[in-house]
Amino acid sequence: MAHDTTPDWDAELQVYEPHKAGLPRFGPYFRDLVDRLPFAAEFSRSGIRAANTQTVFGQLWLVLNPLLLACVYYILVAILTRRGGMEFLAHIVGGLFVYYFVSNSISTGASSVTGGGRLIMNMAFPRLLMPMAAVRTAFFRFLPTVPVYLLIHTLGGGVWSPTMLLGLVFLGMLVVFGIGMAAFVAALQVYFRDTSSFLPYFLRIWLYLSPVLWYPQDAPERFADLMVLNPLYSMIGGWTETTLQGVVPPVEMWVAGSLWAVVALVAGSLFFMSRERDFAVRL
Amino acid sequence: MISLSASDPTTTAGAPAGPRRPQQTPAPGEPPTVSVQDVSIVYRTTFEKVPTFKSAIVRLGRGERAVREVDALQNVSFDVPRGTSLGIIGANGAGKSTLMRAIAGVLPPTKGRIEVRGKISALLALGVGFNGQLSGRENVVLGGLAAGLSREQVEERAEQIAEFAEIGEFMDLPMRTYSSGMYQRLAFSVSVHMDPDILLIDEALSAGDASFKEKATAKMDELMASARAMFLVSHSLGSIKSLCDDAIWIHKGKLMMHDTPERCIAAYTKFLKVGENAFTFEDL
Ligand SMILES: Nc1ncnc2c1ncn2[C@@H]1O[C@H](COP(=O)(O)OP(=O)(O)OP(=O)(O)O)[C@@H](O)[C@H]1O
Ligand SMILES: [Mg+2]
Question: What is the ipTM for the molecules in this complex?
């Protein structure tokens, strides 16, 4: 085969070789990924359109569903712990809405590759775009719930302070973390199609272990040090402390949250990328 | 299938080889546009309908591996220089679609190496990744973005694509309301409007009507002036003959022959123990 040294000929050269276990070359992969981000955005946007969430009732349901759930949990916790009040409701609502963002990222992410079907079988593009699109979808389902949260926050007599803006940092961590987790479960789902059936149980337990139905400082004494091992403890805890109480969370939360987000993103996408060449033969 | 000779079967028997269109020629010293080097592809299929944790645990208990390997391609090598339109023929299950997916970069080779120089637009056997819930127009935008076009380019082209496909107001209706011919019209239209350097077409026109096939054939001829190479998989030997100037014949994953379309078709039809004319007529 002519391996021409003239750089001209190889300008558009693409080489396809076996690479079972290895990773693709990062340079071209991420360049391609960035180039095609508009595709991921459009894919997510059209998915949302197809699911009719653009209609008034669709939007209403996006808000109503987590809101009703929040009420259910509020009553449950109120009965069990004799805690109550508007402020506590605001805490549950704030935590639960953002928890559902993560949970939706993971569960829609899980089916993003197996549900991609023909797109995956017929088109060559960085597959990481699929879980990323799923997280975008989850994010846009989360957005309409933010005003509701702020409303309840106000009704509960919550403070408004510039500190609340720090919550955005924790939201950013949750997005990064969500992408990593979505990529991980998306790849897992290709090999084990019952992954998505196990996820709800797992996610439910995770909800109870995270400071949504309880305050971060409620963590039992002997587990307090272990709490940083739960990524959502720092991220959701940080989100509610900043946006609801307007206090700056302790430094451990910042460190643990960002570490977890980065670890999830790197590990999840590396696992995904090492398997993605295999997807087309396994769908 | 696409066939210029459909209206005049006599031309298929002894017509001179190759298309009559302006086409590119390789510059001196230019490496082939597509180079397939000793490529083998193995599908690993499980017997289970779907792989699950449950079945993995059950298997673990019994210590068996429920994997069957299908050698879809075995040590296939060929080069395609600039300006070639390559016809690919072979029986069902020969590995033609597998080869197309490998060249398109969807399926990594199990062994060997594929070099591609240029931007590929592929119309593969399964059609474009269209979503039935979305309108034709939305799918066109999505397909264009997936193929790496920018949003402006896509929106600019959506109009041309709609016009070429001639599906009228269906362009803005959900694609689940399309007939299979309309679906293929749109799919073909999308892939030829992507400014491809290399065009791959796998059995993509089987449902198109006669007038669209003619239009598609003309479009492919036109594209050959700007594109570097075209690959056409078809069971219609007449279209291979009229559209291609080079051909390969694959049988059970092995490259049997790489020659002019006439000779490949002659050998292939002889191999099938069917008279060439009888086969071609039947197919048309
Ligand atoms: N996803 C898959 N998993 C396992 N085996 C497959 C898969 N796709 C194709 N095969 C096998 O690979 C071989 C080649 O298939 P391929 O689709 O490439 O044939 P083809 O030449 O395109 O046939 P046709 O003319 O019917 O389109 C066949 O034996 C087929 O059973
Ligand atoms: Mg085929």
Answer: 0.77
